[in-house]
Design goal:
heterodimer, A: mainly alpha, 79% helix, 1% strand, globular, B: Rossmann fold, 6-stranded mixed beta sheet
Chain lengths: 267, 326
């Protein structure tokens, strides 16, 4: 465990040093992460205002709270591994990772977390700026805020493991971008990004709760904006735990099969 | 008897490669039915390395050298045959196994591009769980042997190819592996840097008793480091033995360099005249006739100087490969 902690610390230093080399790309990524929810926020605010100040049971300022929090949750949970893996397999840099006496997922998790630690303060500042402009309103209970902490950690882990598993498709195909697109569409709709899930018809809400997407983004946002009852919060955490267990199993199976393919066709 | 550090028995690796004719029609056909062809890259080779041995692994491009090294380091799963390294089956990639080996590929790099090499070294220290004292000691030794001092704190992307290679090699050896696989470690480097790396590999082997399997297209690397060479071609073993025996076995000729006053003499009756400049003739004569021709040259001509040589090792290897073709 101590050795693993040392690895995470070293990876943090490495990521910090590399990330700071490319300040411009860091800023561009962050702008993208601010712009996307901002567009949804503006659209829904406009719809809400023309609709007499609310859509469903969400007010204009409720939308502001939802999307500012979503911006932060999405930032905390997002990964870029699916874009990177194809390159790693094709260029053979994965070979070096396979020669190391540690599972490569650790470096990726550490790299992701480290990068977030660098960018999060700036995202929080952006969120504060947006809050001044859009004047959000939400009244989450204390239990709801407390429950959001494990929910956010679980959301990060589920999203990371699912996307890491999908990234493994690079072992089978060199056209990973097609798979990425197929994944991003349901993610956009069913995670609560394009609209809060409570605005969707009930069957879609059920579908979103069965699939992993809501548990990656929407659920922590709902907790942080105080949209859920204690029972719903508890059920949500249980669903997240179930998806975490399932994604760990999935990662193991797909990784093993992928490495078998890699070592059969030529690394 | 000590068990071998590396044991290979009837090792095979066959790749399944999809192929199609050129053109749109063939492209459409391949959508429905893909033709696959089995290409044997390594075809039943066997050899052992004892601990501490440095062996040159030779063969032309595509002979199966890299495939073999990848099977030995656990990156590739053999199609058939047996392979063990330090008693481990490599493709299982046991952590205890991975901690004792390294693979350096001259054409690929593992150092993080944007940061100084020393930061990548620290990362490797954590990955290999090297105790701090050992790490500092090994780093100091490697820094001294490879003259890394001024390089360690520069971003890797600002290093020259040779400087980067030295750092790559150091990064790969920080955990003091017992078995070292080197795939073209000197490729693209200038002569001075090649010599430097070569000397270092020899020193590493002596100091740590590591077993080294080395592929290189530069015969100077092999001559300087390896008493024993293993030659493969088209995935098959052509030769396994001492470098000197390889020369004996695969050369039918010797070279005689005779220094005369000038180039006017006609030496064709003594052997094949390869060249002459400033009175220095280079003759190629059948090995069995060397002594007799030398005697005749000395008796018949006003010889200033005479030298009998084996042909250059490059020529020998070329001979080996062309015999492998037939």
């Amino acid at each position: 465990m101590r050795a693993l902690a040392d690895l995470y610390v070293q990876q943090f230093k490495t990521t910090l040093a590399s990330t700071l080399q490319y300040r411009a790309s860091l800023v561009i990524w962050m702008i993208a992460h601010i712009l996307e929810p901002l567009v949804y926020l503006i659209v829904w605010s406009t719809v809400s205002n023309t609709n007499g100040g609310s859509v469903g049971d969400i007010t204009t300022r409720g939308f502001a709270a939802y999307y500012i929090v979503l911006m932060l949750v999405n930032h905390v949970t997002y990964t870029w591994i699916m874009f990177e893996y194809e390159y790693r397999v094709r260029e053979g840099s994965l070979s070096f990772a396979l020669l190391k006496p540690v599972h490569p997922i650790h470096s990726d998790i550490a790299d992701n977390v480290s990068s977030k630690l660098i960018t999060l303060p700036m995202m929080l500042a952006a969120a504060a700026g947006l809050a001044l402009i859009f004047r959000p309103s939400a009244s989450p209970a204390l239990w709801s805020l407390a429950a959001a902490v494990p929910a956010l950690v679980l959301a990060f882990l589920i999203r990371f493991l699912v996307e890491w598993t999908l990234a493994q498709s690079a072992f089978w195909t060199t056209r990973v971008s097609a798979i990425n697109q197929t994944y991003f569409v349901p993610l956009l709709f069913l995670s609560g990004q394009i609209a809060p899930l409570s605005l969707f018809p009930v069957p879609i809400q059920v579908l979103a709760s069965v699939l992993p997407f809501r548990w990656m983004i929407g659920f922590p946002v709902e907790l942080l904006t105080g949209q859920l009852s204690p029972l719903q919060g508890l059920i949500g955490l249980a669903a997240q735990a179930a998806w975490l267990a399932l994604s760990i199993v999935l990662v193991r199976i797909v990784w093993r099969a992928g490495v078998r393919i890699y070592s059969a066709v030529g690394a | 008897m000590t068990p071998p550090a590396i044991h290979i028995q009837d090792l095979c690796k066959t790749y399944s490669v999809s192929e199609r004719e050129a053109g749109v029609l063939a492209a459409l056909q391949s959508l429905i039915h893909r033709k696959r062809q089995e290409v044997p890259a390594v075809d039943g080779i066997s050899f052992d390395l004892v601990p501490g041995e440095v062996v040159g692994f030779l063969g032309p491009n595509g002979a199966g050298k890299t495939t073999t090294l990848k099977m030995l380091s656990g990156l590739l799963h053999p199609t058939a045959g047996e392979v063990t390294v330090l008693g481990y089956v490599p493709w299982r990639r046991d952590r205890a196994f991975l901690r004792q080996i390294t693979l350096v590929m001259g054409q690929r790099n593992q150092l993080v591009w944007d940061i100084p090499a020393i930061d990548s070294f620290e990362l490797n220290r954590a990955i290999y769980r090297i105790p701090t004292l050992d790490y500092v000691q090994t780093l100091n030794e490697l820094t001294e042997l490879l003259d890394l001092g001024p390089l360690l704190r520069k971003p890797v992307r600002n290093l020259s190819l040779g400087e980067r290679m030295k750092c790559e090699i150091a990064a790969a050896l920080l955990h003091r592996p017992q078995v070292v696989f080197l795939d073209e470690p000197t490729i693209g480097l200038d002569v001075t840097m090649q010599r430097r790396i070569r000397a270092f590999i020899g020193e590493y082997n002596r100091r740590f008793g590591a077993t080294v399997l080395l592929t290189s297209h530069y015969m100077a690397d092999v001559e300087a480091l390896c008493r024993r060479v293993v030659v493969i071609h088209h995935g098959r073993l052509l030769f396994d033995g001492e470098l000197a025996d390889l020369v004996q076995q695969f050369t039918a000729h010797k070279t005689i360099v005779v220094q005369l006053e000038d180039c006017r003499a006609d030496l064709r009756s003594y052997g094949e005249v390869v060249s002459c400049s400033d009175g220095s003739f280079t003759l190629r004569v059948p090995k069995a006739e060397t002594a007799q021709v030398t005697e005749r040259l000395l008796a018949d001509l006003p010889v200033i100087d005479l030298l009998v040589e084996d042909p250059p090792i490059e020529e020998v290897i070329d001979n080996v490969f062309s015999q492998g073709e037939t």
